[in-house]
Design goal:
heterodimer, A: about 475 residues, mainly alpha, MetI-like fold, two-stranded antiparallel ribbon, 2 strands, flat, B: about 450 residues, 2 domains, 20 helices, about 5% strand
Amino acid sequence: MSVLFLLIVVAVLATAAYVLCRQRALGSVQGNPKTLHSLPVYYGWHGAIMVLLPSLAGLVLWLLVQPLVIEGRIAAALPDGMMAEGGSMELVMADVRRVAGGLDVAVDQGAMTEDQAGRIRTEFTDVRDRLAAVGVALGSDVTAPVLAAAQDYRVMTAWGAMGRTVLTVLLAAAGLVYALMLTNKDFRARNRVEQVVLGLLIAASSIAILTTLGIVYSMLTETFNFFAMYPFQDFFFSLTWSPNFRGDSELGILPLIWGTLYITLISMLVSVPIGLFAAIYLAEYASKRVRSWVKPLIEVIAGIPTVVFGLFALVTVGPLLRDYFAEPMGWGDSGSSVMTAGLVIGILNIPFISSLSDDIINAVPQSLRDGSLGLGATRSETIRQVVLPAALPGIVGACLMAASRAIGETMIVVMGAGAAAKLDLNPFEAMTTMTVKIVGQLTGDTDFASPETLVAFALGMTLFVITLALNIVALIVVRKYREQYD
Amino acid sequence: MTDATAGGLAAPAFSTPKSSLLSQTALVRRRNAAETRFKAYGIAAIVLSLATLGFMLFTILTDGVSAFFQAKLSFPVELTAETLDPQGNRNRDEMAKVTTLGYNKVLAAAFAKEMTARGIAIDGQSDKDVTDMISKDAAGDLRAAVLANPQMVGTTIDATVLATGRIDGYLKGRVTMETAERDANVTPEQLQLADLLREAGILKSSFNWDFITSPDASDQRPEAAGLGVAILGSAYMMLLVLITCVPVGVAASIYLEEFAPKNVWTDAIEVNISNLAAVPSIVFGILGLAIFINFAGMPNSSSLVGALVLSLMTLPTIIIATRASIRAVPPSIRDAALGIGASKMQTVFHHVLPLAMPGILTGTILGLASALGETAPLLLIGMVAFVDNYPGSPPDGFLDPATALPVQVFGWAQRADPAFIERSSGAIIILLIFLVAMNVLAVLLRRRFERRW
């Protein structure tokens, strides 16, 4: 029975359980629901849950464990010589699976009977030809041990499928009977149903933690693999980045960090003044009408996908800077440059800084402004000497978050900053960042045993740690000084 | 004493400079000027950022609108039976042995014949100049049409085929006589011919539905490249994100807002969610590659893996929005429900959640919109690969290789032929149309259902 069909059977049983339990509960009080402990639907739901939970848990567990058990037994049964000549265990197992799959196809298409597929021998038939006849192409000739293992594999898988079906249906039926036995007028169905729902809610909220664990785990293991192949002091302190797939690559992160920080610096020089002045104007000067139009318009910038900014950098900003600044001044002739990427990321971050700062400036109590204005200060003096100092921690926090966004930004630098890793001061040169290199090393054909690919995970880990640290510092700054006026 | 005091007041010991409220002193003038300057900085900042936004959208619109129009050649084609059906029995399987090369010959011959018949010729043209004006995609299209209906062979049909990307670029002003001199893919003679063909009504530019529906094409054929696979892939992913992300996000928010006790575990969850919202998107791509593809063995560049990665990324956004709208439901509602005997769970599911629904919907739509525009993590799970087959229908189609709109924008922008920049901008227009529609929907929902307590 296929898994899909099994799921349908379980669903039917659950529906049956819902109806039966509900009726039984009503029957136990002669159709008068007032004397029941819970509403009748809760008895129904309890029945359905008792069918679904154990059977689905059993099914998932079986699906996870079955391949492990079968492959373990096949591997134990294979002759020892196979490992030595055939390379790794995984390759042999892949062969076994492919042959078994081929036999399945042959049986499905009627080219072999089930019996023939079990008894076919390499000594008498060319298995590769027979399988090719039904459209299954095998890379190499099938050896006798692999064929035998494949036949074992098919037998065990068939038994496994049978066991899976029996177990799931048994668990579902047991759940149904158990729920029916429990159901009577004093049974606290609602409490039990609510407990299960609460459990599901807790599980859902734990996914956030699982995601973080997944990120950390996936990057840590591959980073350790990388450092096993490549010395970490070279990674952190070498001044050269020149990967090549012949093997003698130099993978120093410093040029990448330099490029990242340089681009971030330029983006902050663009976004902080513009974003801050926009926020000040909107919060302190603008009339309600102007504010209700301008604020959403600025926030439109935040809703535009970064790949659009990337294309803008590639097609418009880069050539503009090259033709009107860099080339006439003799600073370089590259369309993609630190300046291009920095400017465009700066634009991207304007709404981020302006809306965060706007909230923070609005949170400064009006009494401070009134006091300052009452002493005769002008509005700009009030803003500079009273409002901004009061809002400073929040603004610093906003700037740190913007910096962390600029550091992690990918598409704009991939399309606008270039791919050459160098340590240079000229902002009109093409330089590169950590994110560009992560994309570069992980797209296309990748080999997860070479340091040139695995270095991407070490870069990702560095990026993750830097952005996380910036955000935590920002949160601490904001939290520590926020309570002053509450 | 009193006299002395009164005298002191009447004649102050120090003298102040004469000033009037009507004439400003130098200091006041300076302070007022500083005030005006400060205000002007604010206006300048706003004008500058809005002007940049306007400039960006303007360049992309002007670059991209032309992608929706395409130069096409219309001329009668005689489907010669000798070439297309050598056996002469109109058998589909035998006709399938004729490759596109055969159809190319038929098209080229028909085109040359039409040009001689109309007397269109210029000095110094070569046969290659003429045949190369037809897109390399045209033969494949014709072959598919003929194989679908073998009875067409032997008749003469009015065919409308794509012109090459350079001729298309000439009609749009991207290719000029000067650039053609230096271009290996087009000659000035072809452009002169194109002028004549346009006067004769054979070469026309018309609205290009294929740009929206057909799959991607190779580097050499920008004129045939379309967004069909990308739009379908994006739609699959949005559907899956909706299915996986919304129930989990809402459940998590309910727990954290209504049930969670204050302890280490819930604190850890809270900190986690706010940190995940700030993790760079590319890190989620690394997670997807390591966990879903390498560890769990899911197929590369499938919409399922893309959707899982995007879901994990969107989850914090949806949780934050949902929690805000649950928190906005006043406690009096909960008290009332609890007061008439509802359990905590019934209060939440029967009263709080329905009242918070508009806010949840709005947050969900905005979260989906940001997922729709995300590119970087999808590059890492292999979606940048060239896909020219439509993914199958769900649920199996979720495992087929697909691509997404923003990834297609990036992919085209990376190609050498400038015609792809136009396609890339056109794809952005489609993407922005979807995003604007989603945002407008969110605003409308908020306006319609928002309740002030």
